Request: fold
Amino acid sequence: MTDPSLRNANYRSPSVSLPDDSWHYIIDVFEGEFLGSLLSLQIEFSEGVAKLEAQVASVNSASFLLALVRRHPHVERVEENIEIKAPFRSAGRDAADVAFDNWHQETASVVEEERLSLERYPHISVKGELNVGSDVVVLIYLEEEADEFTDGGSSVIDDVSAHWQTLNVDVVVDSAQLIFDEETARAKVKLRRGQRSSPAMIHAQVDQSAQASGFAQLTAQFFYKGRRCGFARRTFPLVQLEKEKAEGIESRPHVQLSGNDASRTPNFTAPAQIKASLDASDFVVSINREGTDLDGTYRWVTYSNRLGSGRRQSNGQLTLGPSTRAYAESLLKLCPTLEPGNHARTLKSIGEEIWGRTPSAFQEHYLSLVAEIGPCFPIQFYSDEPYVPWEMMCPKIDGEGKDHLFFSHPVARWPSSSHTGLAQSFADGIVASFVPSYQDRDLPAAHEEGRWLRDNLEAVEHEPTYDAILHFLESPPEAKVKVVHFAGHGKCGNADRPSSIEMSGGKHLTVNEVAQSGVKLGRRDRSLFVLNACEVGASTLELGMASGWASALTNNGFGGVLAPLWAVRDEHASKLVIGSLDLFLRSRETLAESVRRSRDASRGASTTSFAYVLYGDVMARA
Reply:
């Protein structure tokens, strides 16, 4: 047995003696459930047997403590001696007195209580030896300081009572190398004022598939009141068995393990924002890349705050081949050429093909929600996958193809790699419009679109030149900017040139020029960027990352982006944008529902309404 590791609990400092650091989580979890009930604790451990001596304040807390010790991954048997003793209450003031004072002050006053924001960083760790077939315990905390080994921005929870004492945040985990029971793959982190969080504790077993990779990659998503408020990822190496070491066997390939690189700097990425007062989407679909191969495996994790056939989440896997990029590029070429009026059948065939590629667990969860609450609930995608327009899929029920997802549901996506969170609302401000002229290649409907924005939304018309738009983005005006609007020509990028939009005078603004940190407007105002130009909604792969206008703008703080994937018809494109902004800014609809209704209104005219992709929060309002 190792030397005991002494650790004081946070409340009334009971005497605690533990075998080593792998047992510390017991204190955190216990105190999260039974604050102040632990009077003393001593655990000795040898050859699978844990000897437990403790004094606690109640029968329920005693049972809970015993269950925690039994769940340690190395424990086979527990010899316990737990005494129930009423805790001595100090004559001095303690945390319970302060809590009572806060309650009394709140009830005695009718003044609106103060609200605040909480910011916490994810910490992911695993207790137990990571080798195939082993049982382990995953512990996930949300702490005030960043963890240098866990990838993921902080979670910011807004609109919290200034007198809060505890908050529960749901955690949903996923891994291709760890086996979770569906019910145990979800737990809660309890935030505690002035103390370390009580962690989510999730049991898992190391799957055989980890043998080939030599590591276990774990992702965690955080939800507060049904809204996703954060994402984290950590990679752990497997432990090489003693037999393999003795024989000198190099049984696993070398891999780059970001999760245990001690040279990494702490995580200071921008926080994911969450507004507790706003509605949550009914269905969240997260598509996370497994490893570094962009044509490889993606893990699909779904979460719903509603019960569909008794489930709240699902986990699935999809392996894409190198043909995926070619498939996506073929869509960009095919869809604009379909004859107006006869395009629907071909697009439905494409939508059904996309549905057929999705994991069965996703399909089952989606269909269960349709059966439970109907076919019109909002869906939020978070995706690492840069090519496939998943929103275009046509679900099948009993072999019969239904409508495209983005016609039946308000749908939005957000790049998983974005450094900034979604904007849940767009604050009051000006609408800034840029509509270039192109002489013999002019776009009459685009100019009409600009005039409509001016006359109905009081949009401010700006000089549509290369220099003017860069100056606007890099040196924003004093007035807040709610929407940036561009209507004109655009080109999708390729290996020789980046994607671009064409300004007056024939000069092109490239995506690379708005991806740099000198663009300040988005980070200041979290504006919506409407990019009504051919093909600029498409993503490309550069430097091993999904890139394009959407990721360039969202990484620079813009709270939403609306843009088409392929070449669109001038008059139909204008109708979609005018209809969307009219519903969003004047009728106060959610952004995604505004786009859905406007898209549906012009679906029969051409493929144009099918081309648009919305990046942002599916429930965002102006």
In short: The mean pLDDT is 82. The CA atoms of residues 431 and 457 lie 7 Å apart. Residues 570-586 form the longest helix (17 residues). The radius of gyration is 27 Å.
